[in-house]
Amino acid sequence: MRQTAPVASPFLYFAGDRLSRAELTAACLDGDLVALDDAYMPADAIETPALRAGSLAPIVGETLAATHLSAAWVHGALPAPPARHTVQRAVPRRLSVVPDRRLVYRDLEVGQADLQRVGGVLVTTPARTLADLARVGDADHTTALRLLADADPDAVARAIAALEAGALPHKRAALVLLRSLQPAVRTT
């Protein structure tokens, strides 16, 4: 599923945009560029949340938002992008989505209060990302949860408050996990 990029960054290169894949690969071999997920960036640029999010622009577009492990990577909690990006509908209308094996698509709409624009791309807020990661509960999501909680301790309390206010699957286990992080976060 490839959509139009909402905002083009002058620091991101996509195959077929300004340069071909062969030219981008040659620039990587020369040490001028490095890969950033499906995009390329200058080797001397600092990898920021805006550049990470911008690299998702072709798959996220204006109608989807990066969530779960993808959002955790954008927020800096993971050193590398997940093998499959998780995206969720960010508009009220249902979408006709072409399946892509590199994506995990969730059709439930993410509320605007749980979204922020980073690098021109919609991404769930750190608090919403923590709540989503806690509800999955596997090892990868729990590791990302702990790293994101360390990076943004205030988001833990906001995630707990959001989970307490709504009815969601796996809410109880998620609350237990998030509450267990609160004392550890406060002491650091």
Task: Quickly count the helices.
Answer: 8
Major sheet size, sense and barrel closure: 3 strands, antiparallel
Category from helices, strands and their pairing: alpha+beta
Element pattern in H and E: EHEEHHEHEEEEHHHH
Give unreliable regions as ranges.
Answer: 1-6
- Strand arrangement across the biggest beta sheet: 1-3-2
Distance between the termini: 42 Å
Average pLDDT for all residues = 90
Q: In percent, how much strand structure appears in the residues?
A: 15-25%
**How would you describe the shape?**
globular
- Provide the gyration radius in Å: 17 Å
Describe the structure.
The chain is an alpha+beta fold. 43% of the residues lie in helices and 16% in strands. It is built from 8 helices and 8 strands, in the order E-H-E-E-H-H-E-H-E-E-E-E-H-H-H-H. The protein has helices spanning 21-29, 49-55, 57-60, 68-74, 126-136, 139-151, 153-165, 171-187; strands at residues 13-14, 33-36, 39-42, 64-67, 85-89, 103-106, 115-118, 121-124. The chain has a 3-stranded antiparallel beta sheet. Strand 2 and strand 3 (39-42) form a beta hairpin. Helix 4 packs across helix 5, helix 5 (126-136) packs antiparallel against helix 6 (139-151) and helix 6 (139-151) crosses helix 7. The longest helix is centred in the C-terminal third of the chain and has 17 residues, at 171-187. The termini are far apart. The relative contact order is 0.13. Mean pLDDT is 90; it is low at 1-6.
